[in-house]
Structures
1.
Amino acid sequence: MPVTIVVGLQWGVKAKGKITDILSDEHDCVVRYNGGANAGHTVVWGERKFALSLLPTGVLKPHVTSVIGNGVVVYPPRFIEEVGKLRAAGIEVGKNLVLSDKAHVILPYHMEEERLLEAESEGKIGTTGRGIGPCYQDKVGRRFAIRIGDLLNADYLKERLRFIVPHKNKILSAMGGVKEFAVDSLIAEYLEYAEQLRPHVADTVKLLQDRVTAGKSILFEAAQGSLLDVDHGTFPYVTSSNSLPSGIWSGSGVPARKLTRIIGVAKAYTSRVGRGPFPTELDDDLGERIRKIGREYGTVTGRPRRCGWFDAVAVRYTATLADVDEIAFMLLDVLSGFDEVKIATAYELDGQRINDFPSDAATLARCMPVYESMPGWTDDITMVRQPADLPANARKYVDRIAAVIGKPITIVSVGPDRDQTLHLKS
Ligand code: IMO
Ligand code: MG
């Protein structure tokens, strides 16, 4: 039975949600293993549009078991809010949504800490402000962490927060904060959340391992793109978890060697929200045009995304790290109408041509893209339903990118809706 992962190969790929949604039809479980409500996964079903941040995309289908794995960081009010919105939209959410007892909890002081850090220009990362980094810091630091399972044990939670909150208040005040968190009201608030979370909480490691043993199919949904992976991305302008498939083993308990299919998702161009180097960025009318046509504004924060040409150096690097079997190539329709389209196939660094993605952000910031230019296509392709009906130049662009990356492109998306999906033979 398939154990599949859908992983973004750039910084952010808003179209991951579409592919995951299509694939969730053929899987029994959909699993998030990293990140938290910093993700923005958009699913379009005809007139209906769903934006998910924390919950797995599978939650739109009640017959699929959706799992928030131990590697995810969870802000309980957000969990409750997203579930509430889905129910209000007529989507049934119950036992099908399972939350790991080992997932770490985001508390309001995490958000405050992030706000204070991001308010300073030095060291600013341009985060989503969802408390992700500070929560992972506490996880790895061990002393001040709270896990979902801890919420369900009232006495233990009280004991923990009475120890943690005074420390946090001291740290925040030393950072220039003026807000003090009151232990008792925080305890009362989180105990209330705990009761709403309780029906969903389980040992998801055991659950998933049992499903794998029983031959059930599992779909892993990576949050964030591989270039934001904390180990292999453009550090320090990354997120705080492993978005690459390497995060699956630790973040869900499913051994990565159970994976049978690794699908990398890449857009036909590049975008990035937040700070950090971006060699193919177009700081001009062309960039603005991509942003407008592609509606490139952050799903989570609404920030305009920085846009630019396709960076094949970066995607070759992440496609290798993620060991993808195939690539889903998204938003090709956004490039219709450009006279030429460009692909960065190498970089120039200090007068030398390099083919490998540098390991640090400062070096990447000094890289200039070496472009290959191809003629564009004028036709609107959003109505195309067969690969053979793509304009010749659009098809050449797709084929050239597959050749430069060295991986087959098996899916081409020409619009947000499900039927705007072309399947190419690899
Ligand atoms: P999906 O899953 C694009 C970016 C933020 C910032 C950096 C760190 O929709 O692809 P964080 O709040 O995680 O500490 O911010 O990572 N970032 C994303 N960019 N798509 C995302 O998610 C992102 N999640 C975080 O903008 O640069
Ligand atoms: Mg997104």
2.
Amino acid sequence: MDFTLTEEQLMVQQAARDFAQNELLAGIIERDDAQQFPTEQVKKMAELGFLGMMVDSKYGGSGLDTLSYVLVMEELSKIDASSSVIVSVNNSLVCWGLEAFGSEAQKEKYLTKLATGEIIGAFCLSEPEAGSDATSQKTTALDKGDHYILNGTKNWITNGNSAEVYLVIAQTDIEKGHKGINAVIVEKGMEGFEIGPKENKMGIRSSDTHSLIFNDVKVPKENRIGEDGFGFKFAMKTLAGGRIGIAAQALGIAAGAYELALKYSKERKAFGTEIANHQSVAFKLADMHTKIQAARHLVYKAAWDKDNGNNYDLSGAMAKLYAAETAMEVATEAVQIHGGNGFVKEYHVERLMRDAKITQIYEGTSEIQKIVISRSILKG
Ligand code: CAA
């Protein structure tokens, strides 16, 4: 086993660390308060190649491995999980899905722009009545020969308003259940496609989350991804990789909160000494550090599985489950170590605690990860 990062991985990690410190930290409290999308920061991340990290350079991507992507997600998320979810959705759910399963024409038309970050994309699976129960799609894409007619509503869509390209999962043939589901590419501005109001969220407040409404939207057949009926498998395969990205986000949130708590505990004095000298604080730090390291090993292993052509459904689900639970726990303890200061915005840990919560919910709740894990271990 070799736990050393390559020169290239170390460089990419450092670039993300510098970017987060120099470009994401400034104005973060204001962006969070105002729910302001980080437009300028996304542009700069595109210039750094962070929006199409794993895409082949022939489509404009950075051609890096999953571990490099995870390292970037971790560093960005230490500071700004709103920006990192934009990166994660564009990389794992949109670019990866298109590169793996899209036609050459779709790659030429969409992937080349998405991978360079000239435009960003959204992944549209969740519905008012189909969150965890993802096969219960009510959005329909009815087959009309050379096109589909799309009707329905999608909920909680990341990049909902800022995206230009939307990968939409919809039911074509209800009789066939999940085998009658398709994934189609919808462009912003198509007639009948409306963007609903922005959600007012607890955390990751500067990422824009919207519902989307499709009213008789005519989508050409050439915009279907893969064979007829491949849509649900497309969503599941894409989400399996997405979960590694969100696991890395959770890891970064935990590590960011821990680093702040560690620093604070060496500065803040109580009862005549730095609070780190009190065992109640030192033991908290020990637990936080240990859990973060365990989460890191799970996340890197899942990335390694993906890079080495192994199945990563199980390792990705375990990484997401453990990293998300760790993020919530560590961020909450980081607030506790900060005491009263932890409860005010200037110290950043309360935002990380609010941001941590979503990692237990999106791209499959912690309970859904346990379904994936238990099914995998029970089938042997
Ligand atoms: N790869 C390939 N195929 C898969 C798969 C995978 N990882 N997982 C399931 N499938 C296939 C199954 O093999 C099955 O196909 P067959 O019938 O041909 O064998 C089919 O999909 C249906 O699978 P199940 O019978 O297991 O379906 P289920 O109804 O029991 O649900 C589930 C399985 C794992 C619970 C799934 O519904 C699920 O993942 N739910 C959570 C959805 C989710 O993660 N939503 C997140 C929204 S996206 C988001 O949050 C993005 C964002 O904005 C940040």
3.
Amino acid sequence: MLSLRHAIRPVASRCARRWAHNIPSFSHLNAVTEEDLAQFSKILAPTSILSTLPPNSTSPDDLASYNEDWMGKYHGQANTVLRPRTTQQVSEIVKWCAKRRIGIVPQGGNTGLVGGGISLQKEIVLSLGAMSKVRSFDPVSVLYRRVKYGYPTPGILVADAGCILESLSEYIAPHNHIMPLDLGAKGSCQIGGNISTNAGGLRLLRYGSLHGTVLGLEVVLPDGTILDQLSTLRKDNTGYDLKQLFIGGEGTLGVVTGVSILTPPAPQASNNIFLALPHFDNVLPLYQTVKRQLGEIMSAFEYIDRTAYDMGLSHGLGPVLNADEVGNSQCFVLVETSGGNQTHDEEKLTGLLESLLSADKPLINTGVLSQSPSQFASLWAFREGLTECCQKEGKPYKYDVSVPLADFQKVVDAIRERMISKGLYGDHAISKVMGYGHVGDGNLHMNVIAKHGYRPELEEALEPFIYELVASHKGSVSAEHGIGSMKTHALHYSKSDVSIELMRKIKQVIDPLNIMNPGKVLP
Ligand code: FAD
Ligand code: MLT
Ligand code: ZN
């Protein structure tokens, strides 16, 4: 990796009363019985049914990975996991569950960070992992071919919901296309899970949210009906756009079984730089400068505060920058460019770096420009690896919020001060409070590390304080991870009573028996 200084010639309450956080009682639901297993065995192959009940008598250990989330924060009670291979099988399972009033938790790669994919009581887990076929891929969509011949155009991928995101990227790579989203969990998360959480990730700045890139969905509704809206049309303005309800629906309205999605052409030139900033106040002016100078080729702008940077180094993610040059820099950014012409993009990037370093009051202390694909990947690995580092530090309380960029650091500092004032800051309790995230999307990830594990008094000190803090900055309590079971009681900080009531009515119409991921999203 080349230091910038060498890469270019230096030219120089709401009220507490509402804060109830109880596990809902599911008196309207029934537990799975042997009779249910007999029915499931008419639908699925024996290897697709895991149940601790006889006659299957699967060992609870074999269900453990379905009953614990990625962080080890949420622990489920499911005694039965079903792994269908086809949409028809999903439909038949759901029909039976509706008849018998059995709760269903759809589960993808189980990388969700808000407890949405874990059962709360005895709901079954419906794991989509065995539905992993690509159904079709049109590298140059016919509609585009007619109007824009010769210009790289988005392809259209139609796939089963259980396809792993990274496998889909690998599938379309030889055709010179990429998935419109990318995230650190790409090796495990599934496209159906991405859609159900409306995952954001590292490419949202460039390609927008799944609300725009998903063309169609196939969904099994809570009564077992198959809703086939697997359109490959870019434009379809015929009434309500129903698929949008399931994007970010977190499995509460149905089981997504198939997905049709736009896949952008792979950029011909990709570069990234990692910059150290003397002060947090420089982030906003730097963002504006970079955006202005790089224009259409800027594809990501990611933020890492000093605590997160030092944590990454201590877990072997770096070094990416020269320690002397970093000095006491307060924060860091990773900027990516993706364009169509290497020479043009390099000229733009070099021009940017020259102007940054030659400024009278430089916005940066130092930085590196990747010089090869492997250096490009290792800069990204630093940013993407932070989530895993947090796990190694202890148990993270994770808050993914939207707040104005200018307030990012204020929010992180306020939480640290809160924990200090409560006598809960230090190796005995909360050892680190840090921020990183997607600056370009106004999305801050706050990670509060409980060194010796989750404890009720830590959570009580953090919540609802954090949600009130975010609301006071006119932010959102979830920018990308969703509500799950973690934030049902915090939904009102970001949604009005009228909105929540309308959401309830939609849930009531689509899932009147409340069997589909009960206890999630809605308070
Ligand atoms: P799961 O965790 O299995 O499920 C998540 C929710 O979706 C649950 O409510 C579940 O019931 C529902 N669901 C899953 N599949 C279906 C289906 N087929 N039909 C209906 N409902 C379904 N998130 C981001 O937004 N941006 C990031 O950058 C990001 N980075 C991450 C990095 C790491 C290391 C990790 C561990 C997580 C990250 N996440 C991120 C969170 C998470 O990976 C995403 O939310 C992901 O989209 C979840 O997909 P999954 O298949 O693992 O879903
Ligand atoms: C990220 O941006 O890294 C993810 O959303 C996961 C996290 O919050 O750690
Ligand atoms: Zn994120």
